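Data card: per-record layout.
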Amino acid sequence: MRRIDAIFAAERAINGLPAEQRLAVRGQQIAPLVAELETWMREQRARMSRHAEVGKAMDYMLTRWEAFCRFLTDGRICLTNNAAERELRGVALGRKAWMFAGSDRGGERAAAMYSLIATAKLNDVDPRAWLADVLARIADHPASRLHELLPWHWKAARTAKTADAA
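The structure for this 166-residue chain is written out next.
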């Protein structure tokens, strides 16, 4: 636990920094901690019975080690999936309501809308304002430039427009 706590403590210190800076710190400070954790886990696992419950947990992590370490090579990736789980909590809480979407197609549409709203929230964009603007403009917007209407691009364009007006 101390080794894992050290990794999380180092990650907390860089939370909120740009991806490039996080990647640099991870390479210098966190990658050695992760390597030590792997070495320790493999040594400890070799000493245990194959039926040991702790050993089974270690096997689970060690067989997924490459996926676990992916955050060390991409500064955009978070160490945990807490943000995604927080966003899904609303879906889980409303799962009985989602049963009554009317059809599979209705369920797919509801899932798409929920994804759009959650994406807007994750990008600090008011979903209601964004959807109202995008729905009013999308019919006249070129299909080859739909990416401009995504929340992060929309927010940047609004910020630029506000700055130009000032």
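Known properties of this structure: Residues 90 and 114 are 10 Å apart (CA to CA). The chain has a mean pLDDT of 88.

See the next section for split statistics.
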